[in-house]
Amino acid sequence: MSAPIYLDHNASTPIDSDVLETVIRVSRDSYANPSSVEHSDGSAAARIVETAREQVAAHVNCKETELIFTAGSTEANNLAILGAFPKLQDAGRSHLITSKIEHPSVLACFDHLEGHGARVTRLGVDEGGQISLDELAEALTDETGLVSIMAANNETGVLQPILQAGQLAEDAGALFHTDFSQASALVPLDLKDSPIHLASFSGHKAYGPKGSGPLPLDPKTTGEPGPSVVWGGQEKGLRAGTLNTPGIAGLGHAFELISKNIEPDRERIAVLRDQLETELKETLQVHVNGNPEARLPNTISITIDGVVPQALMQKLRNDLCFSASSACATEHVETSHVLLTMFGDTPRARNAFRLGLGRQTRREDISRVADLFGQAAGELLLLRSA
Predict the structure, then answer these.
(1) Beta strand 175-179 pairing with 144-148
(2) Do 187 and 152 form a contact (C-beta atoms < 8 A)?
(3) Which is the catalytic residue, given 62, 109, 321, 328?
(4) How many CA atoms does the CB half-sphere of 235 hold within 13 Å?
(5) Which part of the chain has CATH 3.90.1150.10?
(6) Does the annotation mark 328 as catalytic?
(7) What are 223-277's pLDDT values in tens digits?
């Protein structure tokens, strides 16, 4: 039996084979602690970390000194948002703005801060899944300290106008943070002279290893956020813990490969996504969720009239890998907060699922995927009408 076709790249990308070789080599040969620079092996490990810092910084066009390595975007989101707040609060800027469709790790940070003196504004989105820049502009005050808007939604792939939003925040004297995780491998980012002051990434969303991710921060604007862990002095005292040298090396290599491959990847994957949408619409009553003009080239959020995604996933589990909602919430069968914000408590929101294509998706996979969905959905609709 052939392996299932993998369409869950939004949840996690497969590690690139060359990146995996880097992780294995560094794990085997460079096991010294990179903080032990007083001896040669420790210094060699530290150089590996700094090479990765150079690779990531080159990709996003920021200074190497502006990069902190974390365990991934969930930790980076926490460090950026929670770490920035105490100084903002001391400066009289305890008003914070985010959107209702952010990743749960971002929403949890704002919920926490709301219980510690923050006033939080949560922006809604339209049916296309985008925030309103006018609504953001109206929400900004001279007490606003931080705005956090994701670059691309992990469930719909919808892109947010982060440069315009960041400029509005900066003009109001506020910091701007974006969770760039979902966009990492498919959307170019140039942080030089941009209004983005903090950005979160995860290696496993960018064909790199799990457990690694950079956090670029602009110290000229942000100062330095408070540490995520009080004890320990690694990563400029902001992120304690022994550095994951193999993961960081793999992360740097992965970002270097993105710099080389991003344009051909975007073009090829977008063609496959459009082909899949067309073939699905030929046989099924489908709704594509999200702004079709502003979304990632690999993502389709779709609702099939009358078909429950969990039943579809069960029927296709040996043939396809895809997600009914955000992978972080699959233990609970409940409607996505993103789709609820877009459509309310409706069948379109309840029955949405996500297809995420990637580098390994082949042209010959597309018709097979469409045929499998058509057959499985047809069988479920027949059972429902019986």
Answers:
(1) parallel
(2) yes
(3) 328
(4) 32
(5) 5-13+261-385
(6) yes
(7) 555 554 444 456 666 676 789 999 999 999 999 999 999 999 999 999 999 999 9
Residue found by looking up tokens 């719909």 in the block: 156
Alpha-carbon gap, residue 370 to 300, rounded angstroms: 13
Question: Under a CB-based contact definition with an 8 Å cutoff, are residues 315 and 262 in contact?
Answer: no
User: CB neighbours (10 Å) of residue 364?
Assistant: 7
The pLDDT tens digits for 164-218 are: 999 999 999 999 999 999 999 999 999 998 999 999 999 999 999 999 999 998 8
Nearest alpha carbon to residue 302 among 17, 55, 313 = 313
Q: Which CATH superfamily groups domain 5-13+261-385?
A: Aspartate Aminotransferase, domain 1 (3.90.1150.10)
Tell me the CATH class for 17-257: alpha beta
To which residue do tokens 């922006």 refer? Answer: 123
Taking the C-alpha atoms of residue 88 and residue 96, their distance in angstroms, rounded to an integer, is 10
- CATH 3.40.640.10 in the chain, residues? 17-257
